[in-house]
Amino acid sequence: MHAKRYSLTLNKNKCVGCGMCMQICPREAIEVTLTPRTEGEEAKTPTVTINKEKCIYCGICEAICPFAAVTTRIDREHVVPVVKSESFPKLVREITVDETKCGLECTEIEEACPLDLIKVNVGTNDDKVTVEIDKDSCPCCRVCVTKFPEGTISVKQMLEGNLRIDNEKCPEGCHDCLDVCPISSVIYLTEDGKVHVNETNCVYCGTCRIVCPEEEALELTRTRFNHTDVHSGAWNKALEKLASTKAMTKELKTKSGKRLAQNIEKRCITEVEDYA
């Protein structure tokens, strides 16, 4: 009898402890806990642990991870079962690079990426510049778009939503959300010591919400995911957990509208062919 060998790997260097995988795990096999720290230290990234006794290696956690921190394998081959079976979508990272608009100055700004996912190379003979981006691990924060020459890099937001911080409810002197935010330009301190949000580059991962000690001080809402097409109720349930019932309803209406348009288009084509 041939038995398949399943494995699941968590890359702790990529994981930011956002908890999205925990939210939608069908077997409750994933747990996210606050990382202990001594008094006076900055807040640390939450710790993610996976109970392999509960895990069924479905791959949902990999499909939804914005940072590509999870990898599932079957017989050592990289496979995401729920995506392969088309029962769950895959996040879409729309990133394009026009290397013709990037000169030697780009070598000095490759560090613009807060996650160190960009590498700029210069040819030894012709000084030709090439830009390499680890697209599979990119959460599409778009910081690079503003740093590189205009038109060099184009990135479409992968997750959309809203992030609000109520300074009146923030504990005195607390800036845990700032300490753990993977995109350094999103949350910042002002001269009065208060934390504020610049949503321009926010990826709405939710790490800040996990470490916030005051439940009502920080509010994060996800409203849309850029993902591949899917025709399964599993995604509808996941979307309701990750975003809201409103977001799920909106997506269902959008899908219904698309199906209606496709049916009308097919009918028109059929009628034209019959007439011809």
Structure description:
By secondary structure, this protein is α+β, with helices and mostly antiparallel strands. It folds into three domains: 6-84, Alpha-Beta Plaits; 95-155, Alpha-Beta Plaits, CATH 3.30.70.20; 159-246, Alpha-Beta Plaits (2-Layer Sandwich), CATH 3.30.70.20. 25% of the residues lie in helices and 21% in strands. The chain has eight helices and 13 strands. It has helices at residues 20-24, 60-64, 81-84, 143-147, 176-180, 207-211, 233-242, 245-275, and strands at residues 6-10, 30-33, 47-50, 70-74, 77-78, 95-97, 118-122, 129-133, 153-155, 159-165, 187-189, 195-197, 218-225. It has a three-stranded antiparallel sheet, with no helix packed on it. The longest helix has 31 residues, at 245-275.
Q: Outline, from the CA principal axes?
A: globular
Strand arrangement, major sheet: 1-4-5
How many domains is the backbone divided into? 3
Query: Quick check: average pLDDT?
Result: 89
Alpha-carbon distance between the two ends: 58 Å
How much helix is in the residues?
25-40%
Structural class: alpha+beta
What's the CATH topology label of the largest domain? Alpha-Beta Plaits
Q: Enumerate how many helices there are, as a single number.
A: 8
User: Order of helices and strands, N to C?
Assistant: EHEEHEEHEEEHEEHEEHEHH
Strand composition percent: 15-25%
CATH architecture of the largest domain: 2-Layer Sandwich
Cα-based radius of gyration, to the nearest Å: 22 Å
Q: How many runs of DSSP E, i.e. beta strands?
A: 13
